[in-house]
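Design request, C-alpha cells follow.
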C-alpha cells in the first residue's frame, strides 16, 4: 500500500506578518497532484491542519477546497487534530465527511477505532491519535499521572489490543501528534512541556508497522518505521536550512517498508539568515545569492546604526526580521537581558530569579511547585483555546 504522509499545514499562519495563504494553496495543489501522479492509496495528515483554534475564514475556505479536491480524487484521507487545532471544530461533520473518504480523527475516545483500507494483500488499519493534552485526557485513559508518555502509552495499549483482535494479517499505521525523543525542534512549534517533560520515547509506538508523526517541523527519521514529515512550508527562520517535503511510504504484504521517498514541496521564496556589521552585509559579494530571499539580518555593530532596515532593504528587499546582537565582551554591563536568557526555559529563568532574590536557589520541593505552576498555566491556556 502506498501512503503519502504530511502534517503541520498551519493554514492561516503568516511568516513575520507576510501572508502564507497563497503558498499554502500552492502546496494543496502540489499535494493533490502528487497523490494522483504517484497513484497513492491513502493520504495521512498528522495534525496542526490549522494554525489556531479559531482560524481565519480564508484558511477555512482553503481547507474546504482541499477536502473537495482530495474527495474528487478518490484517495482516502485520514487526518488528526494537532495541538494548534480545536479538536471539536475540526471534527464537526466528521461522520458525514467520512462518507466522502475523508476521515477526521479528533476524539481521543476513538483512538482504537481505525479506518480500515484494503489492497491486494489484505487490510491496513489506520489509527488516528489526535494530540493528547495530558491534563484533559488522563481521565479518559484512566491514568493517575498526567504526562505525555502515560497518556500516549495508554492510547497505544488500546490500539495494540484492537490490532491483536483483528488477527495477524492486518497491517497497521498510527498517526500521532507528539514530540518524540530524538526529534529536533525548531522555533515554530508551540511548547507542550508537562511536568518538565515534552518528549516521549519512540518505544511507546512499538507493535505497529508505520508511525506517521506530526508536530516537529523538520522532516526526520526517528526510526525506520517512525518518521516526521515536517511542515510543508517554513514558518520561522529557524527552518531556513530545512528541506520541506512529504514522505511517500510503501507498505509491503507483511507490513514491511519496501520504500520511503521524500517528495519535495514548493517553496515560495528561500529563507536566509545573515549576520555581521551592517556595512559588511551591504558590501559582501558572497551574499548576492540571498538578495531575493526572505532575510533575517542580525547586526553585530557595537552601536546601533542609523536607519538599518531602510539600508538593508536596498540590497535585500525582502528583509522580514532585524535582530541586534552587538559584539561585546561577556563582562560588558550592556550585554542585553535577552542575550543572558537565550536558550533558557521558563523553569530555569524562574529558578534563577529565586536565586537572585534570596541568594539561594530553590530546593526540590520548590522546584516541583514552580513546575506545577507552569503546567497549570499551559493547561489553562489549552482549555481556553478549546473553549473559544
Amino acid at each position: 500500500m502506498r501512503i503519502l504522509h504530511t502534517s503541520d499545514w498551519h493554514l492561516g499562519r503568516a511568516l513575520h506578518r507576510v501572508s502564507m495563504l497563497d503558498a499554502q494553496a500552492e502546496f494543496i495543489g502540489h499535494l493533490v497532484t502528487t497523490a494522483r501522479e504517484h497513484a497513492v492509496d491513502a493520504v495521512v495528515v498528522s495534525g496542526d491542519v490549522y494554525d489556531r483554534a479559531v482560524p481565519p475564514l480564508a484558511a477555512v475556505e482553503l481547507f474546504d477546497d482541499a477536502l473537495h479536491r482530495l474527495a474528487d480524487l478518490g484517495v482516502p484521507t485520514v487526518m488528526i487534530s494537532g495541538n494548534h487545532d480545536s479538536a471539536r471544530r475540526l471534527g464537526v461533520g466528521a461522520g458525514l465527511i467520512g462518507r466522502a473518504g475523508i476521515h477526521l480523527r479528533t476524539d481521543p475516545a476513538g483512538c482504537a477505532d481505525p479506518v480500515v483500507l484494503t489492497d491486494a494483500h489484505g487490510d491496513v488499519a489506520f489509527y488516528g491519535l489526535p494530540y493528547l493534552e495530558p491534563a484533559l485526557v488522563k481521565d479518559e485513559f484512566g491514568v493517575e499521572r498526567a504526562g505525555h508518555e502515560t497518556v500516549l502509552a495508554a492510547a497505544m495499549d488500546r490500539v495494540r489490543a484492537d490490532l491483536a483482535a483483528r488477527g495477524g494479517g492486518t497491517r497497521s499505521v498510527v498517526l500521532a501528534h507528539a514530540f518524540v525523543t530524538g526529534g529536533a525542534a525548531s522555533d515554530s512549534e508551540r511548547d507542550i512541556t508537562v511536568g518538565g517533560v515534552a518528549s516521549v520515547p519512540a518505544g511507546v509506538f512499538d507493535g505497529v508497522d508505520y508511525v506517521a508523526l506530526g508536530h516537529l517541523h523538520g522532516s526526520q527519521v526517528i526510526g525506520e518505521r517512525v518518521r516526521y514529515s515536517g511542515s510543508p512550508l517554513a514558518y520561522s527562520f529557524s527552518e531556513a536550512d530545512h528541506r520541506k517535503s512529504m514522505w511517500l511510504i510503501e507498505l509491503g504484504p507483511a507490513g514491511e517498508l519496501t520504500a520511503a521517498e521524500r517528495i519535495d514541496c514548493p517553496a515560495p521564496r528561500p529563507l536566509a539568515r545573515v549576520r555581521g556589521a551592517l556595512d559588511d552585509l551591504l558590501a559582501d559579494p558572497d551574499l548576492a545569492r540571498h538578495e531575493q530571499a526572505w532575510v533575517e539580518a542580525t547586526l553585530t555593530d557595537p552601536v546601533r546604526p542609523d536607519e538599518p532596515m531602510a539600508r538593508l532593504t536596498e540590497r535585500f528587499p525582502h528583509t522580514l526580521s532585524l535582530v541586534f546582537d552587538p559584539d561585546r565582551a561577556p563582562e560588558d554591563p550592556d550585554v542585553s537581558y535577552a542575550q543572558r536568557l537565550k536558550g533558557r526555559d521558563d523553569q530555569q529563568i524562574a529558578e534563577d530569579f529565586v536565586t537572585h532574590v534570596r541568594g539561594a536557589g530553590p530546593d526540590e520541593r520548590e522546584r516541583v511547585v514552580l513546575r506545577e505552576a507552569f503546567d497549570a498555566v499551559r493547561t489553562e491556556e489549552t482549555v481556553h483555546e478549546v473553549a473559544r
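Comment from the thread starter after seeing the answer: thanks! The longest helix spans residues 364-387.
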